[in-house]
Design a protein that fits this description.
The complex is a heterotrimer of chains A (181), B (531) and C (439). By secondary structure, chain A is an alpha+beta fold. Helices cover 19% and strands 15% of the residues of chain A. In chain A, a hairpin with a 7-residue loop joins strand 2 and strand 3. Chain B is elongated and about 90 Å long. Classes of the chains: A alpha+beta (181), B alpha+beta (531), C mainly alpha (439).
Chain lengths: 181, 531, 439
């Protein structure tokens, strides 16, 4: 173990203004360079360009289906119980198949309340809910449009989602401490 | 430890805070001893002996071990046997959360699954066996609690075990469905998810439910119940154990009345046809009453209202109007009655009116109203002219102002010139006195959404304030009760919070016999240790 | 009955008052844009650039219009338990007070046009700079009222902090100015600016430096600058609204237009502070090394300078736009071409126009009316003042995005234990030096 001393303030640094001016010069350097060379900024113009999502991304929910297309969910409410944001609202109904017993008549996820913790996925005993749809920017014009219902959550081909992943383009810093010569 | 004579070992343990695994034993049902999970080790002359606790009476000098390795192993083995072919679909099962088997496994089991061969499920899912009941034979562990119940309490004996060995299942006799008046109780005592209620099945997971101590207002028996609710919605009434009154049973009529209290409700204060806020409504009512001579105001209290509501009504009429102009007639036709719990009088608080000295017949008052002697009539939780609509219409035509405090949109509520919504018993605090003169307390489950819906007793307090009367300012209903207890002889020394959970029998002549006439309702001696 | 000269003076004052009231209001959107864009550039970001009108984004300046619309359309909430009068008064007070100090700032030296003297100063009080100090010290009432009347503990804390801070730093500010006044021997603002038009003379030697306050009173300048930051509640002294501790400080309960007023008052204060610093320490409207008389004598040179500045500015702007356009083209081919071409044309067109004007001037094609030298001098001087003010506006932004916020004890320690003694010392030394020089 190595104890690292805090550098402390010494000598000329105690005269705060000198350090202030040094700091100001650093920020001014950034500002001037960015004005003269906008391409040097390590930014992605977001809605037009998007970063690839890594395969472990926790995205929007979906409800998995049985082979016959009925929901795998049996409305056991464990996800709703585990949910810390209380964003899952389920109404159960009797299933026509007595072996299944129970079906969700309504399965609403209020995305405005969801905190994307993934507890629902962990809680599910039937792997019926997954958070692997690679959508991370969820937006809508009305509150109602962001309460996702059963039909919407089941609108997929029931296959495993493996996002195409290209490692991010390495950021090339043209200036600053990480600049490559 | 010293326990009452005749108590069994399990009862002695449970009643005195010693945890012991048990399953088929139900305090108010005869011992069957078929689950074998309440194994204890009893010291004897031939060395320690394993035996079941429920079927062993406590004797002088008996030394019982519940936690020895041997006893624990026996308990665990019995549990493992019960779970051998029990399906492990707890997330789907509606009992999960209040399932005895689930709880016991978490408490005493926690073993690794040892069955080497495929599980052998019996089948028989979701069998409709009665008006209210669904049977799942696969989940049944054959504890026979339900069979013992239908044999002993309603004595209708619809259920039995059929077949032999591992194929034994609970079933009904052909054509004889479980439709007795107490059938709902079998689902309460079923320790697993084998018997479920159609009315509750899949409606709500039990761990979401909040439980509030209450009293069934369905008849003058006033059984102790628990109201189970979540987010302002009531999901079921469950019997609350009261050894002195309803044991752990209630009738189906009371059990399934829970929807009645949340349907067809009066939503807002109305004067004529225009909605008002409570503030405005009371101000206008006070103005109206001030313009009427105190002799010309009649009051209709109610045996369906809480003791506090009636007390406030009486107080209002004593101080502001004439006490003789207050009565509590009730339209209620006598209902069906049996020797177990149900009583013919379908009002929960007629004894309470007697306690307060309010006339429960009120024929004279009704006649005077009919003759047009009153300009204003205040009707609280009541419908004095019952189903006789013609007469009611005629009478109310003669009254200048009919002020109605009502929970539901009843006929009289529609006819009222001023209508104030009040809370049903599930949303307020209060007390009822039942037919056997037992004072019982119920508590509010939740606040109604509309804050203008207030308790009738507090409504009278607000009105009294608007009429500039002193002594009506109570913060809440418990405060009303505490004030009332100081004035009423039979309630002396009681406060709202000191009423025992099982109620208190008042010094007042009972009007009905005790429940469970001719029923062996107490087969086991309750084993609470003498202190 | 007024004669025409008096009437003209009245008109002059009225117009100047309106101009000096509108100046900070014009500065505010620009300042906000500068803040957003400046912070972005300092942090290697692009900054706001999404709001657009007909495809024109103008480097994000359209966002100000969006902001105004947003603030006006928002629900104007008045919380239930506030002290209504003071709660509503506070933002108006803040805004009003923040607009007042500029009235005494001269934009240019007085000139005479067609026999009429024109002053570029709205109010020439005899109390001069003291008026500014008294007005700025009233600004704290807005903050305290808002903090107290909101009936919210966060805003109350913000108001308390702010009042303590302003009182602490007002002292140093006043004392820093005292040193300056001793040197200038006047409190009138136009007098202060006039003196700064000469060259610096130390012990009989004329130095190649303008006679600016910053050279005469370097310590006083630093003290004044720091105090000005503290007075405007600006980072690193923005403890009054320290969002990490107080949510938003004194204006946490304000919304919509009322919040906008606070927001604008804050920026308007900074504009006023920039004007004040420029005027007191950087020669105000004085063009360095060119006194007003010289400017009036050489109108041709003045026009040349103006044209050259305009040409260089236009060309620089055009080059910047084309560089951004290249960048944009790489990110998203084909997007934003129209705006770029338009802005490029604007910049280069302006440069070309200025150059052709310059050519005309040298070929003697321009008429030279009698009032031209005065107007040109005033134009150049106003421009010079604006450049100085813009620099200090940028300094406010620049410092904010460089320095972290002080801790409250550090703030108090600095105010009372460092600034105040130094200011007193500065004052005493200045006095001694002046005495020695006089004898």
């Amino acid at each position: 173990m190595r104890v690292v001393e805090r550098p402390g303030v010494t000598g000329i640094q105690k005269f705060y203004l000198v350090e202030v001016v040094k700091g100001l010069l650093v920020t001014l350097g950034h500002a001037v360079r960015n004005v003269l060379n906008p391409s040097g900024m390590p930014v992605i113009p977001y809605p037009e360009q998007k970063k690839d999502l890594p395969p472990t991304t926790r995205g929007r929910h979906r409800l998995m289906k049985r082979e016959d297309g009925s929901p795998r969910c049996t409305a056991c409410m464990l996800c709703a119980t585990a949910c810390p944001a209380e964003c899952i609202h389920i109404l159960a109904e009797e299933s026509p198949d007595p072996k299944v017993e129970k079906l969700p008549a309504k399965f609403d996820i209020d995305m405005l309340r969801c905190v994307f913790c993934g507890f629902c996925v962990d809680a599910c005993p039937l792997d019926a809910i997954r958070m692997d749809v690679p959508e991370i920017a969820i937006a809508g014009y009305t509150r109602d449009s962001l309460v996702y219902g059963k039909e919407f959550l089941m609108d997929h081909d029931n296959k495993d989602i493996v996002p195409q992943y290209n490692p991010p383009r390495p950021v090339v810093w043209t200036h600053g401490p990480h600049a490559k010569p | 430890m010293e326990v009452p004579d005749g108590a069994n070992v399990l009862e002695a343990a449970l009643s005195n805070g010693v945890a012991l695994e048990h399953f088929c034993y139900q305090r108010y049902l005869p011992v069957a001893g078929n689950c074998r999970t309440c194994m204890v080790e009893i010291e004897g002359p031939k060395g320690n002996m394993l035996t079941i606790g429920c079927n062993t009476k406590v004797a002088e000098g008996m030394v019982i071990h519940t936690q020895t390795p041997k006893a624990k192993q026996a308990q665990k083995t019995a549990l493992e046997f019960l779970l051998l072919d029990h399906p492990l679909d707890c997330p789907v099962c509606d009992k999960a959360g209040e399932c005895k088997l689930q709880n016991q496994y978490m408490e005493y089991g926690l073993y690794d699954f040892r069955r080497g061969v495929e599980r052998d499920f019996k089948g028989g899912k979701a069998v409709d066996i009665g008006e209210h009941i669904i049977l799942d034979q696969e989940r049944c562990v054959l504890c026979t609690r339900c069979i013992r119940f239908v044999d002993e309490v309603p004595k209708t004996s619809e259920l039995a075990i059929v077949n032999r060995g591992h194929q034994s299942t609970i079933s009904i006799f052909p054509g004889q469905r479980v439709d007795n008046a107490y059938s709902g109780n079998v689902t309460d005592i079923c320790p697993v998810g084998a018997l479920t209620l159609k009315e509750f099945r899949f409606k709500q997971r039990v761990w979401f439910l909040k439980k509030t101590e209450s009293v069934c207002p369905g008849c003058s028996r006033g059984c102790s119940i628990t109201v189970e609710h979540n987010k302002g919605k009531i999901f079921r009434f469950m019997p609350r154990e009261n050894a002195e009154l309803n044991k752990t049973w209630i009738c189906d009529e009371g059990r399934f009345s829970f929807n009645y209290y949340q349907e067809n409700r009066v939503a807002e204060v109305r004067l004529g046809h225009s909605p008002r806020s409570l503030e405005e409504g009371i101000a206008e009512l006070a103005k109206l009453l001030e313009g009427i001579s105190p002799d010309e105001v009649a009051g209709i209290a109610s045996p369906a209202a809480a003791l506090e509501d009636n007390y406030m009504m009486k107080k209002l009429f004593e101080k502001r109007f004439k006490a003789k102009n207050l009565a509590a007639p009730f339209w209620g036709k006598p209902g069906d009655e049996d020797k177990i719990l149900k009583l013919a009088d379908k009002t929960p608080n007629r004894q309470g009116l007697k306690l307060l000295g309010i006339d429960t017949e009120g024929k004279d008052l009704l006649e005077r109203i009919e003759k047009g002697a009153f300009k204003a009539v205040i009707v609280m939780h009541n419908n004095p002219f019952g189903q006789d609509e013609e007469r009611a219409k005629k009478v109310y035509g003669k009254v200048k102002a009919l002020i109605v405090l009502s929970v539901h949109k009843t006929k009289v509520a529609e006819q009222g010139s001023m209508l104030f919504p009040v809370r049903p018993f599930t949303e307020k605090n209060g007390t009822f006195v039942n037919a056997t003169s037992r004072l019982q307390r119920f508590r509010a489950c939740f606040e109604p959404e509309n804050q203008d819906v207030i308790e009738a007793s507090l409504w009278i307090g607000r009105l009294a304030k608007a009429l500039k009367l002193e002594g009506f300012a109570f913060e809440d209903t418990p405060a009303v009760f505490n004030a009332m207890a100081k004035e009423v002889e039979a309630l002396k020394g009681l406060t709202f919070n000191s009423i025992p959970a099982e109620g208190k029998v008042l010094d007042l002549a009972p009007v009905s016999p005790e429940p469970f006439q001719g029923v062996k309702a107490q087969p086991n001696v309750l084993g609470k240790a003498k202190s | 009955m007024m004669d025409s000269a008096q009437l003209f003076t009245l008109l002059n004052i009225t117009v100047m008052t309106v101009i000096m009231w509108l100046t900070p209001l014009q500065f505010i959107p620009f300042f906000i844009w500068l803040e957003r864009k400046g912070s972005a550039l300092i942090q290697d970001r692009i900054g706001p650039n999404r709001a657009e009108i007909l495809g024109f984004r103008l480097f994000g300046i359209i966002h100000n219009i969006a902001d105004v619309i947003k603030l006006l359309m928002k629900e104007n909430i008045t919380p239930t338990n506030v002290n209504r009068l003071y709660y509503l008064l506070a933002p108006f007070w803040s805004m009003t007070v923040s607009l007042l100090p500029l009235l005494v700032i001269p934009l240019a030296a007085p000139i005479t046009v067609a026999g009429h003297p024109i002053r570029f100063q709205a109010a020439n009080f005899d109390v001069g700079i003291l008026y500014v100090l008294s007005i700025t010290s009233m600004g704290v009432f807005g903050v305290i009222l808002a903090g107290w009347a909101s009936n919210n503990k966060f805003s109350l804390l913000g108001g308390l902090r702010s009042s303590a801070q302003m009182i602490s730093y007002e002292l140093s500010m006043g004392l820093a100015v005292v040193g300056l006044l001793m040197v200038y021997q006047t409190v009138k603002v136009d007098g202060i600016v006039e003196i700064q038009g000469h060259l610096l003379t130390v012990a009989g030697h004329t130095l190649p430096l303008p006679n600016w306050g910053v050279f005469l009173q370097p310590v006083g300048f630093i003290l004044f600058l720091i105090a000005a930051f503290a007075e405007t509640n600006r980072n690193p002294f923005d403890l009054a609204e320290g969002e990490s501790e107080l949510v938003a400080g004194y204006h946490v309960e304000y919304s919509s237009v009322k919040f906008a007023l606070f927001f604008m008052a804050e920026y308007s204060n900074m504009v006023a502070a920039s004007f004040l610093i420029s005027t007191l320490f950087f020669g105000g409207y004085q063009v360095p090394f060119a006194s007003t008389e010289e400017l009036l004598q050489h109108p041709r040179a003045v026009l040349t300078v103006l044209c050259l500045l305009s040409a260089v500015g236009g060309a620089f702007f055009g080059i910047l736009v084309s560089r951004r356009a290249e960048h944009q083209e790489r990110l998203q081919p084909g997007s934003r071409r129209m705006e770029s071409s338009f802005l490029k044309a604007l910049g280069f067109g302006k440069a070309a126009l200025a150059l052709s004007l310059l050519a005309c001037l040298w070929m003697g094609l321009l008429p030279a009316p009698e009032w031209l030298p005065g107007v040109l001098a005033a134009l150049l001087q106003t421009l010079c003042l604006l450049v100085k003010v813009l620099f200090f506006c940028w300094l406010f932004v620049w410092v904010r995005w460089t320095l972290p916020r002080f801790r409250y004890d550090q703030l108090m320690k600095m105010g009372w234990k460092m600034m105040l003694p130094i200011a007193l010392l500065n004052m005493v030394i200045t006095a001694v030096v002046i005495l020695v020089q006089k004898n």
